[in-house]
Specification:
The protein has ten helices and no strands. With 185 residues, it is mainly α. α2 runs parallel beside α4 and α4 packs across α8.
Length: 185
């Protein structure tokens, strides 16, 4: 079978990698740095990539591992108890729906890293549970459990009911909450 050169294919995955990095770092500059570090590591280790396997999952695994390695090495974290910094990262939506993007962003930021990561991979990035499990290095059931717990926590934090309809324009928000049967208006 004839496969594309992974060096050419890496460019195709940059937008999705940046979106995932941004969801992890919650900072545009840090996300760009994380993607750059990931590409450098991937390029340097291209000989370890098995042609014919899932390049996207391989890149996301490198990105995820780079993020968590950097986090472990970091001795200090930026404290944001009142959410002022997080509020600057979201733009105000143009509608006055039940669920504003800012409310969702604040609630989403409160989720544990593992649940937020599972929701981004499965809900917003379109990964299958199998791909997300491979990327995170865990069992499929673990990813399903993390995503479900994350969705349930969001519903609780946002004071919603399972049968409640939402007015949303943000597709990532729609995708994350769609797994629990909430449908946007």
């Amino acid at each position: 079978m004839n496969h594309r050169d992974p060096r050419d294919e890496i460019v195709d995955h940059l937008p999705a990698m940046r979106a995932f990095a941004l969801s992890l770092t919650r900072n545009s500059a840090a996300a760009d740095d994380l993607v750059q570090d990931t590409v450098v590591k991937a390029w340097s280790n291209l000989d370890k990539f098995e042609v014919g396997t899932n390049l996207r999952a391989w890149l996301f695994t490198i990105l995820r591992n780079t993020f968590y390695s950097g986090r472990r090495k970091s001795k200090r974290e930026v404290s944001d108890p009142d959410g002022a910094f997080a509020a600057t990262l979201a733009s105000k939506p143009d509608h006055d729906g039940r669920l504003a993007l800012r409310d969702f962003s604040v609630a989403f930021a409160k989720l544990p890293d593992e649940q937020r990561e599972a929701l981004i991979l499965v809900g917003a990035s379109g990964f299958s549970y199998e791909e997300a499990a491979e990327t995170c290095g865990v069992a499929i059931g673990t990813i399903k459990s993390r995503a479900n717990r994350g969705r349930q926590a969001l519903i609780k934090m946002l004071h919603m009911r399972d049968d409640e309809e939402m007015e949303l324009t943000d597709q990532a928000t729609v995708a994350v909450l769609a797994g629990v049967g909430l449908s946007p208006c």
